[in-house]
């Protein structure tokens, strides 16, 4: 850090905060922990950056545009600090695990007061205290950690659904991906600690949990022989008041029959799997270090569909990975058609400095990437449209989540298969499981009408949420 930047400043205590979260659910869950720690210190939320005392930017580095958005945000605080001079600006998350980014911040963004990383968020109260007492810019980033700090306070966004991180880190080193460098190696939480957390959530009125990990299928590999993801699902399925168990993300290479059987057998585990395939070309998958082939994908998807009735499968795709030819792209289209994914997140390959793919030959021109993503979306949208048509006039179980963005008189919620449903209803329905009749099926969402308030668990087969209305 350059000496002239080490200026001390007098800080007036303003115990309000605003957290801006970028990136994945893992970051959202970390932000809930930061909010929990701040509330424990007596802080309250104030989202107006002109008035708030503390802003935390929890950053993501997965693609270049994620980095750019964060730098844009940090830049804007130069002006904000002129009208709100006591504001403390803290930056944390995945971008901070890269020394060159921290260097760039110390060199060019004097408005940043506090920097910490993904491995030491539990230190945040101590770092904030140090900053408040010294008034000097503070940078503390740990390279890695082999433990998970338990029992951090958590300020959860929703009372009826919650994220539960079951493991940190990733050991896979897919050649395009920055995450193993920003989140370190896999560390699983003890199953009993996860069970206790989910049980406490259930006792508190939470009905849906989403188990988080970069590759939940390798959960427990570091814990011993009798613990794995399948056993965890079976254990959590016994918690009475939990009605829905979701998880993400599943890596196809580790999606064993044992896991598929557990999903099929556990009535609370939703019939929905997010299974990122990234590409359908075996040649590209090898260059990506994904450790499965086109045949493996098609076989796993077939097995999932046979074993789990009514299952929805979504995926992630990267278009324009280095060396991807038109023939490779056609292989991806072939797999999409064979697997009939309910939907997909599609990404243009983005160079991440420090990853092996960044220096591979044959980087694909941007216009070719765009053309492929557009052609890919055409195929995906047609499949989504056709699958969603099957929901027309069906009665589905929906967990009502929040007022619809476009029309406050309507609510949005999700089926067990993860489909977004818009339906008429008022705020008193939020957090309830309802039976909803689908009146219009669109490509990206469904419209419906409530036919029964508060569906009791077991009213319909939780693994088949598409029961004909007149049955
Ligand atoms: N652990 C998850 C993925 C987490 S990152 C898994 O393996 O499935 C979320 C998604 O971002 C990935 O599935 C991938 O599709 C995309 N992604 C990651 N790195 C990328 C890059 N360099 N360029 C474009 N997309 C990328
Ligand atoms: Fe990235 Fe691959 Fe790990 Fe997923 S499994 S986080 S894509 S390295
Ligand atoms: Fe982004 Fe880090 Fe998640 S890089 S996708 S916030 S693990």
TrEMBL record:
GO function term, MF aspect, one:
tRNA-2-methylthio-N(6)-dimethylallyladenosine(37) synthase activity
| PROSITE patterns assigned to the protein according to its UniProt record, in alphabetical order | MTTASE_N, MTTASE_RADICAL, RADICAL_SAM, TRAM
Q: How is the cofactor bound?
A: Binds 2 [4Fe-4S] clusters. One cluster is coordinated with 3 cysteines and an exchangeable S-adenosyl-L-methionine.
Subunit details: Monomer.
Q: What sort of enzyme, by top EC class, is this?
A: transferase
Radical SAM core domain mapped to chain residues: 156-386
User: Pfam families recorded for this chain?
Assistant: Radical_SAM, TRAM, UPF0004
Q: Which gene encodes it?
A: miaB
Q: Which family does it belong to?
A: Belongs to the methylthiotransferase family. MiaB subfamily.
Domain MTTase N-terminal as annotated: residue spans: 15-133
Per the UniProt record, the source organism is Acetobacterium fimetarium
Give the top-rank taxon of the lineage listed in the UniProt record for this protein: Bacteria
Report the EC number(s), separated by commas if there are several.
2.8.4.3
According to UniProt, the name of this protein is tRNA-2-methylthio-N(6)-dimethylallyladenosine synthase
What cofactor is needed?
Answer: [4Fe-4S] cluster
């Amino acid at each position: 850090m350059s000496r002239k930047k080490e200026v001390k400043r007098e800080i007036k205590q303003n115990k309000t905060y605003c957290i801006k979260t970028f990136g994945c659910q893992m970051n959202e869950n970390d932000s809930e922990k930061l909010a929990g720690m701040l509330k424990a210190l007596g802080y309250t939320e104030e989202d107006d950056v002109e008035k708030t005392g503390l802003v935390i930017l929890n950053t993501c580095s997965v693609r270049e545009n994620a980095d750019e958005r964060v730098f844009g945000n940090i830049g804007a605080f130069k002006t904000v600090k002129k009208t709100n001079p006591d504001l403390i600006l803290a930056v944390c998350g995945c971008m901070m695990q890269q020394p060159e980014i921290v260097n760039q911040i110390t060199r060019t963004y004097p408005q940043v007061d506090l920097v910490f990383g993904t491995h030491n968020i539990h230190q945040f109260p101590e770092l904030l205290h140090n900053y408040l007492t010294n008034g000097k810019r503070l940078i503390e980033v740990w390279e890695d950690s082999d433990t998970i700090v338990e029992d951090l306070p958590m300020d959860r966004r929703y009372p009826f659904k919650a994220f539960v991180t079951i493991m940190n880190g990733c050991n896979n080193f897919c050649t395009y991906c920055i995450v193993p460098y920003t989140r370190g190696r896999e560390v699983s939480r003890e199953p009993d600690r996860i069970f206790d957390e989910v049980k406490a959530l259930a006792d508190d009125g939470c009905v849906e949990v989403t188990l988080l990990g970069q590759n939940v299928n390798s959960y427990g590999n570091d814990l011993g022989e009798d613990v794995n993801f399948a056993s965890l699902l079976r254990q959590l399925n016994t918690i009475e008041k939990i009605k829905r168990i979701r998880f993400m993300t599943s890596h196809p290479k580790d999606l064993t029959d044992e896991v598929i059987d557990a999903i099929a057998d556990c009535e609370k585990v939703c019939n929905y799997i997010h299974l990122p395939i990234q590409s359908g070309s075996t040649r590209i998958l090898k260059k990506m270090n994904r450790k499965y082939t086109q045949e493996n994908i098609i076989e796993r998807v077939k097995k999932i569909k046979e074993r789990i009735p009514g299952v929805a499968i979504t995926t992630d795709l990267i278009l324009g990975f280095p060396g991807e030819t038109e023939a490779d792209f056609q292989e991806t289209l072939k797999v999409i058609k064979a697997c009939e994914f309910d939907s997909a997140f599609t990404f243009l390959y983005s160079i991440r400095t420090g990853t092996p793919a960044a220096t591979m030959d044959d980087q694909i021109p941007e216009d070719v990437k765009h053309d492929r993503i557009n052609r890919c979306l055409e195929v995906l949208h047609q499949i989504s449209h056709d699958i969603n048509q099957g929901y027309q006039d069906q009665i589905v179980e929906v967990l009502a989540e929040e007022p619809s963005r476009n029309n406050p008189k309507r609510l949005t919620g999700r089926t067990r298969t993860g489909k977004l449903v818009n339906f008429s209803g008022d705020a008193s329905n939020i957090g309830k499981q309802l039976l909803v009749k689908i009146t219009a099926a669109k490509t990206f969402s469904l419209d419906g009408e409530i036919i029964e308030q508060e569906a009791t668990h077991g009213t319909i087969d939780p693994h088949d949420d598409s029961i004909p209305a007149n049955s």
